[in-house]
Amino acid sequence: MKTVLIFAYECAPFNRSGATIGAQRPAQFAKHLPKFGWNAIVLCCDVNSRWQISIEEAKQTIPNLVKKKLQNFDRAGSIIIPIPSIRYSDWVDNLWMRSIDIDSESGNIKLKPGTINRITTKVSTFFKLFSGDYSASWIAPAKIATIEILKTVQLEACIAEHSPDASLFLSRWLNQKYKIPWIIDFRDQILMNLPKIIWPLYNHFLRRYFKTVSATIAVNRHLAAMDEKIFRKPFFVIPNGYDLEEFKDLSHSSSPADTFFRIVYTGNILYRDQLKPFFEALQMLVKERPNLRLRFVYRGMAKETILNYSSQFGISQWMDIKGIIPRSQALQLLKGADLLLLLSASPDEQSVFFSKGVQPGKAFEYLAAGKPILCTPGDEGLLDELIQETCAGVIISNPKRLSSYLFEVYEKWEQKKDIPYKPRKEVIKNYSRENLARKLADILNQQ
Q1: pTM for this structure?
Q2: Is residue 101 domain-resident?
Q3: Which residue, among 239, 439, 235, has the nearest Cα to 358 in the 3D structure?
Q4: Average pLDDT of 416-444?
């Protein structure tokens, strides 16, 4: 067995609530890599101890924390080691910290109100591009932990899980100091949230400062090609996927006596305008047939958005809307759904990142749930391709057609008949976390 160290600021189950899907990626790689000759040590930042200790406290406590964790490290498996971050890494980080608020429950970051705070945040954020973003305070503790790991474990490779940025700086340091080859696994394109005016400068910095990276990985071929232009290194594609084992032990989640036809959506709403066709369709449907035993079930961070939409469209009585729930409960809802709603980004020619669409992580969990998918409005790109390739559902953009489809499947449910659904199971298997970990192991073997 070879050992790979994965730097992953967000890793399940120690992640903030807003990073649930992304945090599954390193955890699932770690779970399945041992089947293909690699065990993994994942260093992550514990959401319950971020920005809380001094560097002196980190030096005193982290080595012992790592030693204790490594005592349970089965060399035939993998291990996740959550560690804290310090209060701030330098004066720029300290300046940035003073202008933001951190939600104690979710770990999410919000800008404090006021013009001074906006200016302070913009200035400090620019300088932090070259030393680490909001995750910079984790770099020093992660170095301490890595040095302790190297005392007892031989590392053959390193993976930088991005975003955020800390993993890049840590992996570069590890390569320079210990000559361990490293690759970057991108969940999002690195320029995505930056003003276009600074792209040339930042591209130059990335190419020179991280020139020792061996290869890059992205979640789709469009973003992978963009990364190749920046880093000029071999590039690979490993999409997000699903772990069927997460669904095996879940009981059927049902409404009382299965009295409602349930359309389920879980997670955040990134493309809020894309809700409109579905809500227009639902409005048409219940206006014509107000006695339908139907519920739209939502769980996630966008609770208020859904409540506002349902009120605007006058369909509140057909809603079942709540906030964030534990992941196991969310998966249980998917498994017990009659229809799964999947929102897509419309092709955005103004954004180079989404011009080919996007495949959200939830799409793969929907595949694993084994229920028909209703994708709207469609992206004429990557997500449409996934639905068509797997035959896992339908893609409808027109509200009137959408309303007709909803009534059609509702009638099937009323008559206790199966909704038309013939997924290509062999194709869907390609997106299992196990098969995707095999691809990662092949890439690691090439380094």
Answers
A1: 0.89
A2: no
A3: 239
A4: 94
Distance CA 59, CA 298 (A): 44
Supply 262's token pair.
């349930």
Whether residue 348 is found in the same domain as residue 437 = no
Are the beta carbons of 200 and 229 closer than 8 angstroms?
A: no
DSSP structural state of residue 163: S
Query: Residue 391: which domain range?
Result: 245-430
In a domain, 100, yes or no: no
Tens of pLDDT, residue by residue over 362-393, are: 999 999 999 999 999 888 899 999 999 999 99
Structural domain count, the chain: 2
Q: Identify whether 352 is part of a domain.
A: yes
Reply yes or no: is the peptide bond before residue 326 cis, omega within 30 of 0: no
Q: Please check the confidence at residue 257 and state whether its pLDDT lies above 50.
A: no
Q: How large is the greatest C-alpha to C-alpha distance in the chain, in angstroms? A: 70
249 plus 234 within the same structural domain: no
The DSSP-derived string for 76-119 is TS-EEEEE--BS-SSHHHHHHHTTEEE-TTT--EEEPSSHHHHH
Rounded (10°) CA dihedral 105, 108, 113, 118: 160
Residue environment code for 390-413, b if the CB has 16+ CB neighbours within 10 A, otherwise e: bebbbbbbebeebbebbbebbeeb
Q: Over the stretch 329-375, which tens digit does the pLDDT of each residue have?
A: 999 999 999 999 999 876 655 578 888 888 888 999 999 999 999 99
Closest C-alpha to 6, from 33, 53, 21, 191: 33
DSSP code for 432: B
